[in-house]
Amino acid sequence: MSSASSDARQSRAEGMHPSRIIALTVGAIYTLIGIAGFFVTGFDQFAGVTNETLLGFEINPLHNIVHLGIGLLGLAMSGTIRSARSYGWLLAAVYGLTFLYGLFAVGNDDLNFLSLNAADNWLHAASVVVGLAAALWPATDRERSNRTATA
Fold it and tell me: What is the pTM of this model?
């Protein structure tokens, strides 16, 4: 039996695994933020410091596109536990690097092509933690036995 059909049966029988819920939720939130961001920034200053904010987070059109990409990927990868966990690793890696970039870019208009501020850095650090939660959420006993039986 395939892993995907096993995941689907399990989701119906026991509810969605937390990794899938995290991927779906984070994906939806980042997708909505990406769309809403364009109502604030339009397409002006595509990769420059705009000083325009959405809920206190500085954004520009490129930043909005990154949010859309991360969000849509989360929605797409929330279908199975395996892909949701992979999304968690991706979220942690991308936002970990973005957090580090933000430490140097905030306050330096020459480096700050994503138009980040301190609030963005805190959000990116939180996104790393959420990504790690999705990636590392323990499997249930039933999931372990299903993997062992199909291996």
Answer: 0.82
